[in-house]
Specification:
Elements lengths: L17 E5 L10 E9 L6 E15 L5 E12 L9 E10 L1 E10 L5 E4 L2 E9 L8 E9 L4 E8 L1 H4 E2 L9 E3 L3 E5 L3 E8 L1 H9 L12 E6 L19 E4 L9 E9 L1 E8 L14 E8 L4 E3 L8
Parallel strand pairs: 2-10, 8-12, 14-20
Antiparallel strand pairs: 1-4, 2-5, 3-4, 3-6, 3-7, 6-9, 7-8, 10-13, 11-12, 14-17, 15-16, 15-18, 18-19
Length: 311
Protein backbone atom coordinates (compact mmCIF):
# COMPACT_ATOMS: atom_id res chain seq x y z
CA UNK A 1 0.00 0.00 0.00
CA UNK A 2 1.35 3.41 -0.93
CA UNK A 3 1.10 5.40 2.29
CA UNK A 4 1.32 8.64 0.33
CA UNK A 5 -2.19 7.90 -0.89
CA UNK A 6 -3.56 7.31 2.61
CA UNK A 7 -4.56 10.73 3.80
CA UNK A 8 -6.91 9.47 6.29
CA UNK A 9 -10.10 6.93 4.39
CA UNK A 10 -18.81 11.23 -1.51
CA UNK A 11 -20.72 11.90 -3.84
CA UNK A 12 -24.24 10.57 -3.23
CA UNK A 13 -26.61 11.69 -0.53
CA UNK A 14 -28.35 8.40 0.13
CA UNK A 15 -28.47 7.35 3.79
CA UNK A 16 -29.39 4.08 5.45
CA UNK A 17 -30.26 2.88 8.93
CA UNK A 18 -27.11 1.87 10.77
CA UNK A 19 -26.77 0.58 14.32
CA UNK A 20 -23.55 1.57 16.13
CA UNK A 21 -21.96 -0.27 19.02
CA UNK A 22 -18.72 -0.20 21.02
CA UNK A 23 -15.92 2.36 20.77
CA UNK A 24 -13.93 4.46 23.18
CA UNK A 25 -12.00 7.71 22.96
CA UNK A 26 -8.77 8.13 21.07
CA UNK A 27 -5.78 10.27 22.01
CA UNK A 28 -6.19 13.85 23.27
CA UNK A 29 -9.49 15.04 24.77
CA UNK A 30 -11.49 11.84 25.23
CA UNK A 31 -14.76 13.83 25.27
CA UNK A 32 -14.16 15.46 21.90
CA UNK A 33 -16.01 14.03 18.92
CA UNK A 34 -16.35 14.61 15.21
CA UNK A 35 -18.58 13.15 12.54
CA UNK A 36 -17.43 10.97 9.66
CA UNK A 37 -18.85 9.67 6.41
CA UNK A 38 -17.36 6.81 4.41
CA UNK A 39 -18.34 6.15 0.80
CA UNK A 40 -17.16 3.38 -1.52
CA UNK A 41 -16.15 3.75 -5.17
CA UNK A 42 -14.36 1.58 -7.73
CA UNK A 43 -11.73 1.73 -10.42
CA UNK A 44 -12.85 -0.17 -13.54
CA UNK A 45 -12.07 -3.74 -14.65
CA UNK A 46 -11.85 -5.11 -18.19
CA UNK A 47 -13.00 -8.73 -18.23
CA UNK A 48 -15.71 -8.48 -15.55
CA UNK A 49 -19.25 -7.25 -16.17
CA UNK A 50 -20.49 -7.39 -12.58
CA UNK A 51 -18.74 -7.39 -9.20
CA UNK A 52 -21.44 -7.39 -6.52
CA UNK A 53 -20.23 -7.02 -2.94
CA UNK A 54 -22.47 -7.20 0.15
CA UNK A 55 -21.08 -5.02 2.95
CA UNK A 56 -22.36 -5.81 6.44
CA UNK A 57 -20.41 -3.31 8.51
CA UNK A 58 -17.44 -1.02 8.95
CA UNK A 59 -15.14 -0.62 11.96
CA UNK A 60 -12.65 2.16 12.75
CA UNK A 61 -9.61 1.78 15.05
CA UNK A 62 -8.52 4.83 17.09
CA UNK A 63 -4.79 4.99 17.75
CA UNK A 64 -5.42 4.84 21.53
CA UNK A 65 -8.79 3.19 21.81
CA UNK A 66 -11.02 0.25 21.05
CA UNK A 67 -12.62 -0.43 17.68
CA UNK A 68 -15.65 1.73 16.85
CA UNK A 69 -18.08 -0.58 15.08
CA UNK A 70 -21.02 0.11 12.78
CA UNK A 71 -23.07 -2.97 11.94
CA UNK A 72 -25.67 -2.58 9.20
CA UNK A 73 -29.22 -3.78 9.81
CA UNK A 74 -29.24 -5.08 6.22
CA UNK A 75 -26.25 -5.69 3.93
CA UNK A 76 -25.42 -2.79 1.63
CA UNK A 77 -25.06 -4.49 -1.73
CA UNK A 78 -23.74 -2.81 -4.89
CA UNK A 79 -22.29 -3.77 -8.23
CA UNK A 80 -19.01 -1.92 -7.80
CA UNK A 81 -18.54 -1.64 -11.55
CA UNK A 82 -21.39 0.88 -11.55
CA UNK A 83 -19.41 3.11 -9.16
CA UNK A 84 -16.83 4.56 -11.54
CA UNK A 85 -15.74 7.92 -12.90
CA UNK A 86 -16.47 9.79 -9.67
CA UNK A 87 -19.61 7.93 -8.56
CA UNK A 88 -19.81 6.41 -5.08
CA UNK A 89 -22.28 5.04 -2.53
CA UNK A 90 -22.37 5.67 1.25
CA UNK A 91 -21.37 3.08 3.83
CA UNK A 92 -22.00 5.41 6.78
CA UNK A 93 -23.09 9.05 6.79
CA UNK A 94 -22.49 11.72 9.46
CA UNK A 95 -21.79 9.25 12.27
CA UNK A 96 -20.36 10.63 15.53
CA UNK A 97 -17.05 9.07 16.62
CA UNK A 98 -14.21 10.03 19.00
CA UNK A 99 -11.99 12.76 17.54
CA UNK A 100 -8.31 12.00 17.00
CA UNK A 101 -5.96 9.78 15.04
CA UNK A 102 -7.08 6.45 13.59
CA UNK A 103 -4.79 3.68 12.34
CA UNK A 104 -7.02 1.09 10.67
CA UNK A 105 -10.42 0.43 9.23
CA UNK A 106 -12.14 -2.84 8.53
CA UNK A 107 -14.92 -3.72 6.10
CA UNK A 108 -17.14 -6.73 6.84
CA UNK A 109 -18.34 -8.71 3.80
CA UNK A 110 -21.09 -11.29 3.35
CA UNK A 111 -19.61 -13.56 0.68
CA UNK A 112 -22.90 -15.49 0.33
CA UNK A 113 -24.39 -12.28 -1.04
CA UNK A 114 -21.35 -11.41 -3.17
CA UNK A 115 -20.48 -12.65 -6.65
CA UNK A 116 -18.85 -11.76 -9.96
CA UNK A 117 -19.89 -12.15 -13.60
CA UNK A 118 -17.67 -12.30 -16.66
CA UNK A 119 -18.35 -10.27 -19.80
CA UNK A 120 -18.39 -13.42 -21.92
CA UNK A 121 -20.68 -15.25 -19.42
CA UNK A 122 -23.06 -12.49 -18.28
CA UNK A 123 -25.78 -14.82 -16.99
CA UNK A 124 -23.56 -16.93 -14.73
CA UNK A 125 -22.78 -15.87 -11.16
CA UNK A 126 -19.27 -16.88 -10.07
CA UNK A 127 -18.67 -17.42 -6.36
CA UNK A 128 -16.38 -15.06 -4.47
CA UNK A 129 -14.40 -15.79 -1.29
CA UNK A 130 -12.32 -13.71 1.10
CA UNK A 131 -9.12 -15.64 1.97
CA UNK A 132 -8.75 -13.81 5.30
CA UNK A 133 -12.25 -14.89 6.31
CA UNK A 134 -15.49 -13.03 6.77
CA UNK A 135 -15.11 -12.60 10.52
CA UNK A 136 -11.92 -10.54 10.41
CA UNK A 137 -13.07 -8.51 7.43
CA UNK A 138 -11.03 -6.56 4.89
CA UNK A 139 -8.43 -4.47 6.70
CA UNK A 140 -6.75 -1.29 5.58
CA UNK A 141 -3.83 0.03 7.61
CA UNK A 142 -2.97 3.71 7.45
CA UNK A 143 -3.32 6.87 9.52
CA UNK A 144 -6.29 9.16 9.13
CA UNK A 145 -7.65 11.94 11.32
CA UNK A 146 -11.13 12.81 12.55
CA UNK A 147 -11.05 16.46 13.63
CA UNK A 148 -13.05 17.58 16.67
CA UNK A 149 -16.34 19.35 15.98
CA UNK A 150 -15.85 18.88 12.25
CA UNK A 151 -17.53 16.86 9.50
CA UNK A 152 -14.99 14.74 7.60
CA UNK A 153 -15.86 12.77 4.47
CA UNK A 154 -13.73 9.90 3.16
CA UNK A 155 -13.94 7.63 0.13
CA UNK A 156 -12.64 4.06 -0.09
CA UNK A 157 -11.51 3.22 -3.61
CA UNK A 158 -12.21 -0.49 -3.93
CA UNK A 159 -10.08 -1.27 -6.99
CA UNK A 160 -11.78 -4.31 -8.55
CA UNK A 161 -9.15 -4.77 -11.25
CA UNK A 162 -6.48 -5.28 -8.61
CA UNK A 163 -8.69 -6.96 -6.00
CA UNK A 164 -10.39 -9.82 -7.87
CA UNK A 165 -8.05 -12.67 -8.75
CA UNK A 166 -8.56 -16.03 -10.46
CA UNK A 167 -7.03 -18.72 -8.21
CA UNK A 168 -6.43 -21.16 -11.12
CA UNK A 169 -7.23 -24.52 -9.55
CA UNK A 170 -8.66 -25.71 -6.26
CA UNK A 171 -9.81 -22.78 -4.18
CA UNK A 172 -12.37 -21.50 -1.71
CA UNK A 173 -14.41 -20.13 -4.62
CA UNK A 174 -14.34 -19.36 -8.35
CA UNK A 175 -12.67 -16.03 -7.59
CA UNK A 176 -10.85 -14.60 -4.58
CA UNK A 177 -11.16 -11.14 -3.09
CA UNK A 178 -7.71 -9.83 -2.16
CA UNK A 179 -8.62 -6.21 -1.77
CA UNK A 180 -6.54 -3.32 -2.99
CA UNK A 181 -8.09 -0.45 -1.05
CA UNK A 182 -7.17 3.20 -1.36
CA UNK A 183 -8.35 5.68 1.27
CA UNK A 184 -8.75 9.39 0.54
CA UNK A 185 -10.11 12.50 2.22
CA UNK A 186 -12.70 14.01 -0.12
CA UNK A 187 -11.43 17.54 0.55
CA UNK A 188 -8.01 16.59 -0.83
CA UNK A 189 -8.92 14.91 -4.12
CA UNK A 190 -9.52 15.86 -7.74
CA UNK A 191 -9.76 14.00 -11.04
CA UNK A 192 -8.14 13.65 -14.47
CA UNK A 193 -10.21 13.41 -17.65
CA UNK A 194 -9.16 13.13 -21.25
CA UNK A 195 -9.74 11.76 -24.74
CA UNK A 196 -8.15 8.93 -26.72
CA UNK A 197 -8.39 8.70 -30.52
CA UNK A 198 -8.54 4.91 -30.61
CA UNK A 199 -9.44 4.78 -34.30
CA UNK A 200 -6.22 6.54 -35.30
CA UNK A 201 -4.13 4.54 -32.84
CA UNK A 202 -5.54 1.23 -34.05
CA UNK A 203 -5.03 2.01 -37.75
CA UNK A 204 -1.48 3.25 -37.12
CA UNK A 205 -0.57 0.06 -35.29
CA UNK A 206 -2.12 -2.19 -37.93
CA UNK A 207 0.00 -0.47 -40.60
CA UNK A 208 3.30 -0.81 -38.72
CA UNK A 209 4.85 -4.27 -38.21
CA UNK A 210 7.09 -2.85 -35.48
CA UNK A 211 4.10 -2.03 -33.26
CA UNK A 212 1.89 -4.47 -31.41
CA UNK A 213 -1.69 -4.58 -32.64
CA UNK A 214 -4.42 -3.24 -30.38
CA UNK A 215 -6.20 -6.07 -28.55
CA UNK A 216 -9.06 -3.89 -27.26
CA UNK A 217 -9.94 -0.21 -26.95
CA UNK A 218 -7.37 0.22 -24.21
CA UNK A 219 -6.87 1.73 -20.78
CA UNK A 220 -5.27 4.85 -19.40
CA UNK A 221 -2.78 4.06 -16.63
CA UNK A 222 -2.29 6.63 -13.87
CA UNK A 223 0.87 6.62 -11.70
CA UNK A 224 1.62 8.75 -8.66
CA UNK A 225 4.49 11.16 -9.33
CA UNK A 226 5.88 12.88 -12.41
CA UNK A 227 7.95 11.16 -15.11
CA UNK A 228 7.19 7.64 -13.89
CA UNK A 229 8.15 4.90 -16.35
CA UNK A 230 4.86 3.11 -17.15
CA UNK A 231 4.54 -0.53 -16.09
CA UNK A 232 1.82 -3.12 -16.41
CA UNK A 233 -0.56 -4.04 -13.62
CA UNK A 234 0.63 -7.06 -11.61
CA UNK A 235 -0.69 -7.45 -8.07
CA UNK A 236 2.12 -9.92 -7.29
CA UNK A 237 4.93 -7.58 -8.39
CA UNK A 238 6.94 -5.28 -6.13
CA UNK A 239 7.62 -2.89 -9.01
CA UNK A 240 5.91 0.48 -9.34
CA UNK A 241 2.20 -0.08 -9.85
CA UNK A 242 -0.39 2.27 -11.33
CA UNK A 243 -2.79 3.91 -8.94
CA UNK A 244 -5.45 2.73 -11.37
CA UNK A 245 -5.92 1.64 -14.98
CA UNK A 246 -9.09 3.11 -16.46
CA UNK A 247 -10.62 1.55 -19.62
CA UNK A 248 -11.64 4.17 -22.18
CA UNK A 249 -15.24 4.34 -23.38
CA UNK A 250 -17.11 5.85 -26.32
CA UNK A 251 -20.43 6.59 -24.64
CA UNK A 252 -21.72 8.98 -27.31
CA UNK A 253 -20.39 6.91 -30.25
CA UNK A 254 -18.57 9.87 -31.80
CA UNK A 255 -15.34 7.90 -32.35
CA UNK A 256 -13.42 9.67 -29.58
CA UNK A 257 -12.96 7.57 -26.46
CA UNK A 258 -12.92 9.23 -23.04
CA UNK A 259 -11.84 8.40 -19.50
CA UNK A 260 -12.03 9.86 -16.00
CA UNK A 261 -9.66 8.94 -13.19
CA UNK A 262 -11.34 10.15 -10.00
CA UNK A 263 -10.60 10.45 -6.28
CA UNK A 264 -6.92 11.26 -6.79
CA UNK A 265 -5.16 13.15 -3.98
CA UNK A 266 -3.81 16.50 -5.15
CA UNK A 267 -0.30 16.22 -6.61
CA UNK A 268 1.66 15.16 -9.68
CA UNK A 269 0.79 12.10 -11.75
CA UNK A 270 2.04 10.36 -14.88
CA UNK A 271 -0.57 9.28 -17.43
CA UNK A 272 0.00 6.74 -20.24
CA UNK A 273 -2.21 4.67 -22.55
CA UNK A 274 -2.02 1.07 -23.77
CA UNK A 275 -4.37 -0.98 -25.96
CA UNK A 276 -2.83 -4.35 -25.06
CA UNK A 277 -4.52 -6.71 -22.62
CA UNK A 278 -3.10 -6.75 -19.09
CA UNK A 279 -3.27 -9.79 -16.79
CA UNK A 280 -3.36 -8.55 -13.20
CA UNK A 281 -1.44 -11.63 -11.99
CA UNK A 282 1.38 -11.70 -14.54
CA UNK A 283 4.09 -9.54 -16.09
CA UNK A 284 2.94 -8.24 -19.47
CA UNK A 285 5.14 -6.40 -21.95
CA UNK A 286 2.81 -3.53 -22.77
CA UNK A 287 3.48 -0.75 -25.25
CA UNK A 288 2.50 2.66 -23.89
CA UNK A 289 1.91 5.95 -25.64
CA UNK A 290 0.59 9.40 -24.80
CA UNK A 291 2.82 9.56 -21.70
CA UNK A 292 2.41 12.93 -19.96
CA UNK A 293 2.58 14.60 -16.56
CA UNK A 294 -0.64 15.93 -15.04
CA UNK A 295 -1.02 17.92 -11.82
CA UNK A 296 -4.22 17.19 -9.90
CA UNK A 297 -5.81 20.04 -7.98
CA UNK A 298 -8.17 19.36 -5.08
CA UNK A 299 -11.87 19.73 -5.91
CA UNK A 300 -11.10 20.16 -9.63
CA UNK A 301 -11.23 18.16 -12.84
CA UNK A 302 -8.01 18.49 -14.83
CA UNK A 303 -8.01 17.89 -18.59
CA UNK A 304 -5.10 15.83 -19.89
CA UNK A 305 -3.70 16.23 -23.40
CA UNK A 306 -5.53 14.09 -25.99
CA UNK A 307 -3.88 10.80 -26.98
CA UNK A 308 -2.05 10.51 -29.38
CA UNK A 309 -0.27 13.62 -28.11
CA UNK A 310 -0.43 16.67 -30.39
CA UNK A 311 2.64 16.93 -32.67
Amino acid sequence: MNNALIKGFGVTALAAAISACGGSGSGGDSAATGTVSFDVTDAPAMELSNVTIAFTGISLKPADGEWVEFNFDQPKTWNLLELQGGLSEPLITDEEVPAGNYTQLRLLIDTDGSFVKLKDQPDIEKSLAVPSGEQSGLKLNGDFVVAANTETDFTIDFDVRKSIVNPQGQSLADYLLKPSLRLVNNLEVGSISGEVDYTTINSTRLADDQLADCEYEGSVYVYQGADIAPTDLNVDSEDVQPVMAVPVTDDDNDGMYTYTSAFLPAGDYTVAYSCQLDDNQADDDLEFQGMQNVTVIADSEVQAEPIPLPQ
